[in-house]
Amino acid sequence: MNMIVSAKDHQAAEANKNAAILLEELNLEREREETKKAAAARKRDRKKLKKKERADRDKDTADDTAE
After folding, report:
1. Rounded to whole angstroms, what are the CA distances from 30 to 4, 33, 34, 57, 63?
2. Could you tell me the residue range of the domain that residue 24 belongs to?
3. 52-61: per-residue pLDDT in tens?
4. Taking the model in full, what pTM does it have?
């Protein structure tokens, strides 16, 4: 009887360990996803800023040539 209880305890411990590993992998995956989204947002912001700066520079150049 002790062997069965011991085997069940061992099986439960292994299951808990595997569950913890899976949860950690899910957390890492979510963090990678959030980091990737944040990087994409930063890239979009830089692109918008460059476009705005380019438009302002072109406008200034057009104003200078009109004078």
Report:
1. 39, 5, 6, 40, 49
2. 1-67
3. 999 888 877 7
4. 0.64
